[in-house]
Design brief:
5 helices
């Protein structure tokens, strides 16, 4: 049974990789037809998305992590339990780091854009520059999607923990009823 899921996971991974490569090829091929002014608007929109992801994850860490950090530093906690709690913080901090990195890269691109449009090499190769720029937008978009996807994973873990806690509470209540 485990092999069956491994094959499906591998096929899914292959489909994703070919889709990403195909999307990159498509963006490079049509990017020459998309004006830089339109691409700049897309850069700005992706910058805004990065800021929103960073802010939401920052709030999420502020709400969830104080309890986790208190638990890590509590006397008497085992090293294994502390590592488990630390992994929860890492699950939230990685997408936050990705969002911050995308934001910095986009800010840099928006900063150098005015100097590039007056460069003679860039003007003579504007079609290739637009193609590369659109491909770069696609890469940033994929990274943003990945950041969003991995930021959802800790939420699923927290939901499972809540379900376990509720089940333990129900069992405790049933046990207490049986004793009385």
């Amino acid at each position: 049974m485990n092999n069956k899921y491994s094959i499906f996971a591998l096929l899914f991974l292959v489909v994703i990789v070919f889709s990403l490569i195909g999307g990159g090829i498509f963006c490079f091929s049509v990017g020459g037809e998309i004006s830089i002014s339109l691409q700049i608007e897309i850069y700005k929109a992706l910058k805004d998305v990065s800021v929103v992801i960073f802010a939401i994850l920052g709030i999420w860490i502020a709400v969830i992590c104080p309890d986790i950090l208190r638990e890590i530093y509590r006397d008497g906690i085992s090293a294994d339990s502390a590592k488990k709690e630390l992994n929860k913080v890492k699950l939230l901090s990685v997408p936050m780091l990705i969002a911050a990195s995308c934001f910095c890269i986009i800010i840099f691109v928006l900063f150098i854009y005015p100097s590039l449009i007056h460069n003679s090499f860039m003007v003579s190769n504007k079609i290739y520059i637009r193609k590369l720029s659109y491909l770069f937008l696609y890469i940033i978009l994929v990274v943003q999607f990945w950041s969003l996807f991995i930021s959802i994973l800790p939420t699923l873990s927290f939901v499972d923990n809540i379900k376990i806690h509720i089940k333990k509470k129900e069992n405790k209540q049933m046990y207490q009823k049986n004793i009385q």
